[in-house]
Amino acid sequence: xxxxxxxxxxxxxxxxxxxxxxxxxxxxxxxxxxxxxxxxxxxxxxxxxxxxxxxxxxxxxxxxxxxxxxxxxxxxxxxxxxxxxxxxxxxxxxxxxxxxxxxxxxxxxxxxxxxxxxxxxxxxxxxxxxxxxxxxxxxxxxxxxxxxxxxxxxxxxxxxxxxxxxxxxxxxxxxxxxxxxxxxxxxxxxxxxxxxxxxxxxxxxxxxxxxxxxxxxxxxxxxxxxxxxxxxxxxxxxxxxxxxxxxxxxxxxxxxxxxxxx
Length: 262
Description:
The chain is of the alpha+beta class. It has four helices and twelve strands; from the N terminus they run H-E-E-E-E-E-H-H-E-E-E-E-E-E-E-H.
């Protein structure tokens, strides 16, 4: 029993060190940081069915030690390209809304940081989910606001969509700071849209659901356990069952080309 406990601790420490190291590497210039896809998204030319994917990647700079940026990507049946929904804070410098709806590679690196796939839904009925995702994104109430902590931010946006479309069953990691932000509300569903949550403007929170598991948020630091593993601040997630990224990586090589804003 002690051996298993030590192994879990060592794994968590190793994962934390790896995360810190990856964020403190040479990604010092956002202008030259890689935006190349990593091969987790299917090529629309090869996969004609409707697909929804939810991603996250470490944010650029020192903030990446603690948090991720998340986004939702959709490809309707027979569509020739992907559409990505995300909130980009610096967009408020020249726009009245931080919401970005554009065509780009859904699995592109986020300024050098490799993305992780949190959810993958495809096949019959997914086109209807895509319609609901679009409506949810365009009704997001905090588009004119952005705060890295405690929210609203990109993770608040992704959680808003997940709560509106619970069929996605998105289990966001502990590093998705802002997912617990409920605005002026105190009670709501957990970030996945199932179960329930108690939240004080995202600074203190408790969430319980079959998807999110049991989570505690203390000053934005998230601790918990879910079917996908143990959730820890800075680390994100350790252990658990097979993850969407693992299944997607087994697919054939794919090549996506970034498009223009729509």
